[in-house]
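Researcher: Hi, I'm a grad student and pretty new to this. My advisor asked me to get structures for two proteins we've been looking at. I'm not sure of the right format, so I'll just paste the first sequence and hope you can take it from there.
Model: That works fine. Here's the first sequence with its structure tokens right after it:
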Amino acid sequence: MSGGIRTNELLNCYHCGSTGCDLYQGLEDLMFGVPGQWSFLQCPSCGLAWLKNQPIVEDIPKLYESYYTHASVEPDNTFKKIVKIGIPVHDFAYNQALPHPRLLTAIAAKIGPLREIAAHSVMWQKAKTGGKLLDFGCGAGVDLFHLQQMGWQVFGTEPDPKAVEAARKLLNNDNVFEGFLEDAGFDENTFDALTSSHVLEHLFDPLTTLKECRRVMKPGAQLTFATPNIDSLASRHFKEYWRGLEIPRHLFLFSERSLREMAEKAGFRNIKILTPSCYAFYIWQGSYLLKTEHALPGGIPRNTGLGIKLRALFFWGMEFLRNHFGSPCGEELILIAEK
């Protein structure tokens, strides 16, 4: 029991079975106020980290009572259109009309951090007009809406009924299933692509979910999952104040090795792991406020001053450069794999 939330201790690694070592102890939820004290263990073999006192299934809703689902869609300005539409046209073969000179896109596509943002916006999926794409844990459908605009026939799953309602309204269809992927009953070999952004770390049984993802994908289809990187530069620097810990909602935090091996166990092939720095600017600010203010209400850094923003921008650039020159220390792990 932790603060009225019933828990079970998980002492051995979910992935490889090794006995976990203490990583952080006595942590509190400084973002959404879930009561209790929480601890993290880490596997000395594969690097997977996990919440030691795991909430039981029936008490999981208590962790999300004041949690945001996802942001709403905001109109894109010219710069965002260059990044989110222009660069995918340039790099991922999307066939969209460009509302700006092609030269601007060509220039933007040569700027590494902008290319990472653009790739993230289409989840590293190459164009397949009319192809069926499933976003597992789609929230209010913001990412799906962009992919729909880029030519995909989109579907989603989401357990939050309010988010499902918002997603269906945004997408103007009923292609979002209310519940978990395992309960959706999709036929085998249904989807041309499958994506998920920051969902895997919330799951009790991520391997089973990866196997279900593979089942519903067509042969040759690409899966792209984004999840926090326990070995990121900000994680190493801020330690227990790292924004990516997201205590106690993040049950598992992956290393590059543990994520790759889990994808192999699930039967995927042609596995590639990327560690982009797209979120470094945001994560640094959140982590800095957690460390200095011991609070980050709502989980989002708001109204930060110019000095903090400049330091975060510098950190983003430094992390990008370290990644570029061979140190996989970005804030996210991106799993790209084929069935």
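Researcher: Oh nice, that was easy. Here's the second one.
Model: And its structure:
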Amino acid sequence: MISLFSLPGGMELMLIFFVVLLMFGGKKIPELAKGLGKGIREFNNARSSIESEIKAGMKEVEEKAPSAKDEKSA
């Protein structure tokens, strides 16, 4: 089955790179890549921070709530 939203191939990537080069020039591309890298890094840091907070909250709830084994023996 042919997908409408497939990844771009080699020719498409070269065309996209050429258009970006024309729009921003050779001197701006490293700055844009650096900014993109910082954004991705901040996103990943925020995602891992949220994951750790959720896991800590779940662990706290599990410790406070009586387990099913404790309820059966009582």
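Researcher: Is there anything I should tell my advisor about the second?
Model: You could mention this: Residues 10-73 form one domain.
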